[in-house]
Amino acid sequence: MKYCKDCEPAQESHAIAYMSVVMSYIGQPFFNIMEMLFKSTAEAISSKASIPFLKTMVFLGFAHFSERPDSQDSLRTKCFWDEAIRRGIKMKEFHMGPIKDSFIAEYKGKVINFDGLPRGDNDTESGDAINWMDNKGIMKKKFLKEGLPVARGGTAFTKRKALKIFNEITKPVITKPNLGSRSRHTLIHIDTPEKLIYGFKKAKKLSPLVVIEEELRGYLFRATLVNGKLVGVVRRDQPEVTGDGIHTLKELMDKENDRPERKGPIFHKIVIDPDAEVELKREGIKMEDIPAVGKVITFSQKTSRGIGGTTTEVTEIIHPENVKMLEKLGAYLKDPLVGVDLIIEKIEEPWYTEQHCGIIECNSLPFIDLHHYPLFGKSNNVAGKLWDYAMPESKMK
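User: That's the sequence. What structure does it adopt?
Assistant: Structure tokens below.
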């Protein structure tokens, strides 16, 4: 797979990603009908059939189970597995070639199986939102009808439609794949038709449909909802430093990179790559310049920890009206586990007092490790709250 800087922090095959999106569009109507016809039957037999199938594959030598997290597991897997061990929940991860992230969990005779993260008894408690919440275009339309804050814009298949949307909304705008995560092939600060076409082509590499929407103002926050209740919020910041009026930008960056937490595996050093050079040029600053006191200099448009981004735990300061709005979203989705990305200037102030805040996407398989391993603030045991819901028998007193 060829390296792609637009896929950072996690590389993905463009062809496979594109085809998976196309197949989801083509197959969704068929799968919706099949789900409607057979859902009750599938739910009745799923717990009885899936675990024996996994065990049969292992018995035949086509697969194997691991009983402890290893270096190949994501931080998301590690944090909820560590919590399972702490509670005495016995876990097994199924591996068959490239297939992983399928689990069997057992506690005092109760057994559940799930993919990625536990969502309740055999994942049967999710509503239909799990079928569309990752689709940014559909999500936007549905949230608008519910009075939830989202950016103005739309989706486009052609450059002509993209330009039409661009001309109808306030600049600057952002382009991104209609399906996808982790800010892959996303472009912000678009204020000209030329930049719009560039961003459209970039996003088109991963998805036939491209989202064009107004660029919201503020910080990026990740909120996680379990069973409709807000359980954690972190602020995700771009790789950045703050001027002190004394040191050069390079000196400030070197000092920030000296943090022991930036030696991995969670947080990493800020680097000067072509993307950083473009960002610094946009901000009109050079590495030998001395930023003014309090001036924030960013080195990337992305917030990924892998490229120097940071996280700050802010659950305790979120305004009650913002909690109310997010839990309204949770009630509407009727899904037991949702990650919500929200852009807002001040999370400690009501969302409706800001003109350019909004929800930018929802995730059915959120990175709960963001709450467990913040760079700033205390760790928030979201995995524990998820296990309290999925296996309440294991709840620790």
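The longest strand covers residues 99-107.
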